[in-house]
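Below is how a single chain appears once it has passed through the pipeline. First comes the sequence as given, then the structure the pipeline wrote out for it. We keep one example in the README because the format questions we get most often are answered faster by looking than by reading.
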Amino acid sequence: MKTVQIKNDIYWVGVNDHETYLFEGMWPIDQDGVAYNAYIINDDKVAVVDTVKSFKQGEYIEKIKSIIGDKKVDYLIVNHMEPDHSSSIADLLAVYPDMQIIGNKKTFPIMKNFYNIDKNILEVADGDTLDLGHHELQFYMTPMVHWPESMVTYDATDKVLFSMDVFGSFGSTDGSIFDDENDVASYEDNTRRYYACIVGKVSGQAQKALQKLGPLDIQTICPSHGLIWRSNPGYIVDFYDRMSRYETEEGVVIAYGTMYGNTLHSAELLAGYLKDAGVKTVKLFDVSKTDISYIVSDMWKYTGLILGAPAYYGRIFPKMANLLYKVEEIGVKNHKVGFFTDFSWSNGADRYFNAFTEKAKADVVGDMVNVQGLADAEDEAKLKALADAMAAAIK
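Resulting structure:
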């Protein structure tokens, strides 16, 4: 994509990435890609907001030059030091050696450790301003959303918020970067998955950031990933607000591991019993086939969560252990949780589920169902009781 004008002096100079398979080395983005959004304000003083992932630095710098010609870049604003936004700093500094790098007191130690850059730095604090001529920029600290140095930049002149990873999403922006030129609903799953995996652990800090930014007159939101919100910024603000408050809707996610089909059999029985009890939305996920990012994304959406796994040498099926690690990290507030296990000669998965319950402070529904081998009539009755308890709890 070419550069895109957002306001009179403000341009998008970001890039789209269809080469990277795993975002942060963990989260699949192979089908939809991801956008690294960066921006430039071409005022009396030129300010660039963030860089892009380093393997796209050539395209990024050419876009900057196409906007400002022979002018110099006076300032680089570093809202976030994660390398997908910062790893082209050295390349940009090489082209514009007099450029001042703006960050906060927690920005520059990370920059020194990552890139050995400790010159041309200008430290700002919460509420500080920068005059570019026509545009006045204001800086607001949003620590741990989702790194300690995270901050956002607000253009008080054009009412534009450069929001860093806040309000971001997976998914590239090929063809158009604006909300009103895209099917916004088609971005919801990518936005939820991004939030659950990247921001979910720090939902409390995300709420604090939303409250801090609430009084600002925000007419356009320019995040570091995903769409630019110029027509309906309230949509993405509301979406993030609901996610950071763990707001859910009626439905149940059943995530299970299975080696030879017995745990799958129990999961399918549970799904049928839930439907019989009037639960319209039941999502089944095999943890060996589905990346956990998709599971936690739907978990973030629906109130009910049932986890099932076989024992594995007296412990728990390893793929389920991986999911438990992530779910414990992000939390299960405003969720109802149930469990079932399977074993051949000795259980062990039950101990891991009990430990998870303690650590995650899960609101447990019904009794854990422990099946030995294939569920018999007695086991089926227990699974039905669990499904009925879950259905009643989420309604």
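Residues 377-394 form the longest helix (18 residues).

See the next section for the split statistics.
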